[in-house]
Structures are given as structure tokens and as C-alpha cells.
Amino acid sequence: MTERPERNSLSKLTDFFAVAQAIRQIGWGLGFVIAIYFIGIAFNSFAWRAIFHSEWPGLIKILLPLRWIRESINYLLPSAVFGGDIVGGRLLVARGYDMNTTTASIVVDKTMEATGLFFFVLAGIFILLEQGGNYSIAHWAVRGLAAISAMLIGFLLAQRWGFLKLLDKAVQRLTGKCGGTTGNTDIHDIVWKMYADGRRLTVAMFFHTLAWMPGALQVWLILRLMGHEIGWQAAFIIESISQVVCAAAFIMPASLGAQEAAYMTVGMFFGVPPALGLALSLVQRLKDVLVGILGLFLWQGFEGRSLWELWKGRRHDIGSNSKK
């Protein structure tokens, strides 16, 4: 009876060293994981660009870093899941775009992002069933997909039944205090005009669905670098079902605990030991933190540039008034 606690302690210590050793094996391969992550950011940026009706030259060059900033703030700062979107919208407005169109584009972009997740998870379930996989996993995945569908429908109904009107009033007040232009059309009308453009909406949905797929490639590569090879189908299923869990735990900052549990639990059905599942999640978090910190520096660079341009403008105005 006295040996049992010692064995448990030894088991925990062995698992800890197994996780640490697996992470050490990644090495410089983490750079390739980060590069794959940026493919997802690029796809998300193209999706955001597709929503805009304007042919503003060079818009995609602005949306790429702003998307990076949005994801960095949402992941690292205690601002729920919309803080980065607010900052990204404000930075876009600071570069000349009107507030209402920018806000509407972000609302539609978030809706299409959730729709892309729906199709990504649906593809994962289809691959799982096609391979004759574990039906208990498929059962929970379907329930998670139903939860995503319910949240998506609820978000759309909220947009139809008054949320956008409230948002429009909030933006009007913010614009009055902070400056900027809102345009002649309110946010509600702009959003539903964007939804009415089937071609642009389809393109945005397509890119957002693609944007989830580099995550599966990251899972495949990380496990391979750790010395545990799995097929691309297994990596796709692990990532898609894990994203269902993370989506359900969106209230928790960065899905802490939920991501680890998902990788460890789902991975076991494909021969991935729990220690490697935990190591996989920790490497993903390390990647997110590194990219997020760089994104925060990028954000401050944008803010500094805006302040510099504001200072130069005021200095020019003071000089012009003194000459008069």
C-alpha cells in the first residue's frame, strides 16, 4: 500500500520528462510550424478582403498585418475574443476607411470565419466516418458541430433583430469622441448588403475554410518532428475535432485546458500517447505566444506611426497659422 504513491509520483515524473523531451526534439522545426501558421493568416486576410466592395488599391497589404494584429490581441490580451477585432478596425479607420464599412466588414468576417470552421469540422467528421473511425468521437464531434451551428444561427439572428442597430449607435458615439468618418449608410444596411453579394460571400467563406487547414498540417509536422508519424487524415481529424472543443470553450482565455484535453483525448484514438498530445498542445501554444508577441510589437508600430503622422499634421497647422 505504501508503494502506490511512489509509483504515481514516478509515473508523473516520467510523463513530464517525456513531454519535455518531445518538445526538445522540435528544435528549429518550430520555424516551419510558424511559417505554416502564416499561411492561415494570409487566407484569413484574403477572406476579409473579399468582403469589401471597394477597390481601394493596396488594401490587402494593410489587411494582412491587421489580421495578424487581430489574432495576436485576441490570443494574448484579456479582451475576450473581440478585442483584436476592435483594434484592427480602428487601425483601418486611421488609414482612411470609414468606420461603418470597417465595422460591418468585421461583423461579416467573423460570421464567415465561424462558417468556415463549420465546414472544416464537417470535413473532419466525414473523413473519420469514411475511414471507419471511432463512432464515439464522431458522436461528440457531431454534437460539437451542432453547438457551432446554434451559435452561428444565434449570431445571425442577433444581427437581424437589433444587434447591428445597437452597434451602430455605439460606433456613432465612438466616432464623435475619437474622430473619423462613418459614411452615409448605417452598419445594419451595409452588413446585409454584404450578405446579399453571393459571389464575394462565397469567396470569403472559401478562404476562411482553407484558413483552418494549415492547423492540420501543423499537427502532422509537429508530431513528425517529435518522432511520431501519423497520416494526414488522422492529423486533419485531430485538428478539426480539437477546434470544436476550443470553440465550445471560447469563454476561457486562449481555450486554456480545453486544447490540451482535446489533443490528448482525440490523439489517443490515433495512437498518439497522452504525453505527446500534451507536448503537441504546448508547442502550439509556444508558436502562438511567439507570433502573438511579434504581432503586439507590430500593433505598437502602427500606433506609433499614427501618432507621428498626427504630430506632423498639427505641426504643419501651427506653422501655417504662424505665417498668417
- Over all CA atoms, what is the radius of gyration? 23 Å
What share of residues are in beta strands? under 5%
How would you sum up the major sheet? none
| Helical content (DSSP H or I, runs of 4+) | over 70%
User: What is the strand tally?
Assistant: 0
- How far apart, in Å, are the first and last alpha carbons? 94 Å
Overall SS class: mainly alpha
Mean pLDDT: 84
Kindly give the count of domains.
1
The SSE order reads HHHHHHHHHHH
State the shape. Answer: globular
Figure out the total of helices.
11
Contiguous low-pLDDT stretches (5 residues minimum) are none
Helices and strands, with pairings:
Elements lengths: L2 H22 L4 H23 L7 H18 L6 H12 L4 H32 L4 H44 L8 H10 L1 H28 L6 H17 L9 H11 L5 H50 L1
Helix pairs in contact: 1-11, 2-3, 2-5, 2-8, 3-4, 3-11, 4-5, 5-6, 5-7, 5-8, 5-9, 6-9, 8-9, 8-11, 9-10, 10-11
